[in-house]
Amino acid sequence: MAVRTGKAMLEADKKDPQGNGTVAGFELLLQKQLKGKQMQKEMSEFIRERIKIEEEYAKNLAKLSQNSLAAQEEGSLGEAWAQVKKSLADEAEVHLKFSAKLHSEVEKPLMNFRENFKKDMKKCDHHIADLRKQLASRYASVEKARKSLTERQRDLEMKTQQLEIKLSNKMEEDIKKARRKSTQAGDDLMRCVDLYNQAQSKWFEEMVTTTLELERLEVERVEMIRQHLCQYTQLRHETDMFNQSTVEPVDQLLQKVDPAKDRELWVREHKTGNIRPVDMEI
To answer: pTM, whole model, 2 decimals?
Structure first.
């Protein structure tokens, strides 16, 4: 994958659909990485919103658990009802712990990784941009030297033709100077071409190396997000499990609700069974 991506990226730049020239192949690859960084930022923001929802839900559960409605219910049903309200407080605590773990084990690592990823992208971008500028500068030097050589050769040719028409010592001296300048221009062109080729070779090597590094960072980013999303689902499973445990005492007390026993206890407490109406005697 890395070789194919690097090769395609190096062989040709992509034409701008707007018709405004071309977009550097490496720039396209870099934009893909920057898009990944943005996606990671949005994922961390999503988790942050999930945390807010959990915190608000926990707050409302805790508030409801303190509600005084039906607080005077008595007997085994009263015990079950009290446990129903207590279970809300327990569940609120579960959700608070879940939100805290989401922050420390999912949101925060995603944000920290994103910052480091951003630094790596900048470093790669600046490095390749500098090499590309250098390459463009070397290319401009080659073109300038090529133009200079053409002019010197044209000048030499013109002076040679003039010499054939009119022989003179001055003309011969001008031809010698023109020949030296033409030779010098040829040497300058060869030097510029050599410098361009060196820059091109360096650029190619660094492009391949940086491409591989970008792809390694992409794999690292995806794997890192996958691991923390797995952590998210694990925390959700644990939250569901703990929530289930808050309901179990309610289930147990509801099974023990006994209206007959409650009536007996109420009668005993209020002593309604001690004195009963009797027939009156004359």
So the answer is: 0.67
Contacts 24+ apart (CB under 8 A), 177-186: 178/152, 181/152, 181/155, 181/156, 182/149, 182/152, 182/153, 182/155, 182/156, 184/152, 185/145, 185/148, 185/149, 185/151, 185/152, 185/153, 186/149
Residue 238 burial (CB < 10 Å; 0-12/13-18/19+)?
Answer: middle
CATH 3.30.470.30 assigned to domain 38-255? The reply is no
Q: Which of 97, 70, 94, 98 is nearest to 83 (CA)?
A: 70
Domain ranges of the chain: 38-255
Express each pLDDT in 55-88 by its tens digit: 999 999 999 999 999 999 989 999 999 999 999 9
